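queue> pop job 88
queue> type: inverse folding (structure -> sequence)
queue> payload:
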């Protein structure tokens, strides 16, 4: 059972700051994350001594002594904070993050042994003549595979690593392209998994506004019911969401900057310049003192003597994974496109192709089954490589899978602890603490303040999605009560969440980008932050100007 959520005030951000500062100083993400969770236990125990086992007569009779004992007794909450974290507390996370991560790791092990990655390298090398071409290919792959940010991180890093290694592009640079193209592109694709989730987050904010009595009459159709029974009407929220595709400034700017970096218009700077200089001059894509997320055992693993390098051995499993992932998203029991009326184009075997015939059009994609898709790729790879003889024996294939599992284990461990930090700041009540920051804020500066606060929360908890769960019920009522433009405020929330994803060492997508790119995690964080800060600075300026010049009622798509 999860710990009872409390209002710890400013203490709610301390565990995240401890985790991030320690990881930054020691260059060991796991140490920082563990200390962050440990700090949460002590804070929780100090503020709620009786909840962690301090006798009530001591806690009430001597509050100071009760708090001191609580800091010690609170350490026993650490297993609970880990076990009830989103990664373990949600079936979706277990299936679509944890299982998917290990399945991809096993698939990579099989691909290395079967010569699939070598085949991809040979195919891509025919079209790439130098490091610049390799960087452009990495960026374009990150943009192209944008149906889901996790999916992007898992596939693009594995696919492009052989090519970037060949031309001595540092692993940190590859991780930057994976990270800085995946989330922004997924955010801007309304048909991606982000589209489904963001509709829900906006709906939660609108529901909060109705509960607080701040929802305007003209938007009343977006929420049905009242009080605890209030809920958003998804089909009515879509037009508002589509407006935010234009106001998600951070995503657009991040993609433009990454493209300019790939095309050598913006030169390497900061820690990235040092990484690239070493890679080009010494041929070392990873520094000798670095700890790549993909184990050196995997890097040094060789393909079998019976294997023939074929790019098809990569394309077939990955193609199957994409097909299953998209199929799970769009093949649903209800129509993907929703409308008030439909025309039946034709019917076969009980299935009908329906086209919208009238009324407002909405979208209702289903759940994205990344775990199922990745497991499909793993099984197909095993069978394919054995049938073709690229891996000579079942024992050899099994050993390749195990090597893949081991190679990805560090990423899984960091994800587990990062998820525990997200659980920690939520348990300590970071949402209530953040709400206080918006009292008395004038309308013109609301978008900028929302962006900065969201960025801080996302940096602290390492998850844009958990940040959105915190911020939308705050930001939407604030926008409606102050007179700020709603689509711009929503875009500010989206932007701040992705900035935190790009800069926080406890971010799940940052961990995944490091792992499949084979980069040292903290090196990836350090090298990406200057580019993220440049993007954030431009975004902040745009939001400040927009706050001044865009009127409250302006909307590109009527809602």
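queue> result:
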């Amino acid at each position: 059972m999860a710990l009872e959520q409390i209002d710890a005030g400013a203490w709610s951000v301390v565990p995240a700051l401890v985790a991030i500062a320690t990881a930054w100083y020691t260059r060991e993400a796991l140490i920082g994350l563990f200390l962050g969770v440990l700090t949460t236990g002590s804070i929780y125990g100090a503020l709620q001594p009786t909840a962690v086992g301090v006798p009530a007569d001591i806690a009430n009779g001597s509050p100071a002594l009760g708090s001191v004992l609580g800091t010690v007794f609170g350490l026993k909450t650490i297993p609970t904070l880990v076990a009830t974290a989103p990664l373990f507390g949600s079936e979706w996370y277990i299936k679509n993050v944890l299982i998917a991560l290990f399945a991809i790791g096993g698939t990579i092990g099989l691909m290395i042994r079967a010569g699939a990655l070598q085949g991809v390298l040979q195919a891509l090398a025919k079209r790439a003549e130098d490091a610049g071409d390799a960087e452009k290919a990495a960026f374009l792959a990150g943009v192209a595979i944008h149906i889901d940010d996790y999916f992007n991180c898992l596939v693009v890093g594995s696919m492009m690593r052989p090519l970037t290694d060949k031309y001595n592009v540092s692993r940190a640079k590859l991780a930057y392209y994976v990270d800085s193209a995946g989330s922004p592109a997924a955010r801007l694709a309304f048909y991606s998994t982000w589209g489904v989730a963001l509709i829900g987050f906006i709906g939660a904010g609108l529901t909060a506004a109705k509960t607080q009595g701040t929802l305007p009459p003209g938007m009343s159709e977006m929420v049905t019911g009242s009080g605890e029974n209030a809920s958003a009407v998804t089909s009515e929220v879509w037009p508002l969401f589509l407006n935010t595709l234009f106001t998600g400034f951070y995503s657009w700017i991040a993609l433009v900057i990454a493209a300019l970096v790939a095309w050598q218009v913006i030169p390497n700077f900061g820690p990235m310049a040092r990484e690239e200089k070493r890679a080009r001059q010494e041929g070392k894509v990873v520094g000798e003192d670095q700890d790549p997320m993909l184990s050196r055992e995997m890097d040094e693993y060789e393909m079998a003597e019976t294997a023939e390098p074929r790019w098809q051995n990569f394309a077939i499993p990955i193609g199957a994974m994409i097909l299953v992932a998209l199929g799970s998203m769009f093949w649903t029991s209800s129509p993907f496109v929703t409308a008030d009326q439909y025309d039946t184009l034709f019917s076969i075997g009980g299935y009908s192709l329906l086209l919208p015939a009238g009324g407002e059009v909405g979208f209702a994609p289903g759940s994205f089954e990344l775990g199922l898709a990745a497991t499909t790729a793993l099984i197909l790879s095993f069978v394919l490589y054995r049938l073709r003889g690229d891996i000579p024996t079942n024992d050899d294939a099994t050993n390749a899978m195990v090597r893949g599992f081991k190679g990805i284990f560090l990423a899984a461990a960091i994800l587990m602890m990062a998820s525990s930090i997200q659980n920690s700041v939520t348990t300590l009540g970071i949402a209530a603490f953040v709400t206080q920051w918006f009292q008395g804020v004038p309308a013109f500066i609301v978008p900028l303040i929302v962006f900065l606060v969201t960025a801080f929360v996302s940096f602290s908890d390492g998850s844009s999605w958990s940040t959105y769960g915190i911020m939308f019920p705050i930001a939407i009522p604030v926008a409606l009560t102050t007179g700020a433009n709603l689509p711009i405020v929503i875009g500010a929330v989206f932007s701040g969440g992705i900035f935190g994803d790009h800069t926080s060492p406890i971010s799940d997508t940052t961990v995944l980008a490091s792992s499949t790119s084979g980069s040292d995690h903290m090196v990836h964080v350090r090298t990406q932050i200057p580019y993220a800060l440049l993007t954030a600075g431009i975004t902040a300026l745009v939001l400040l100007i927009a706050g001044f010049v865009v009127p409250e009622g302006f909307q590109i798509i009527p809602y």
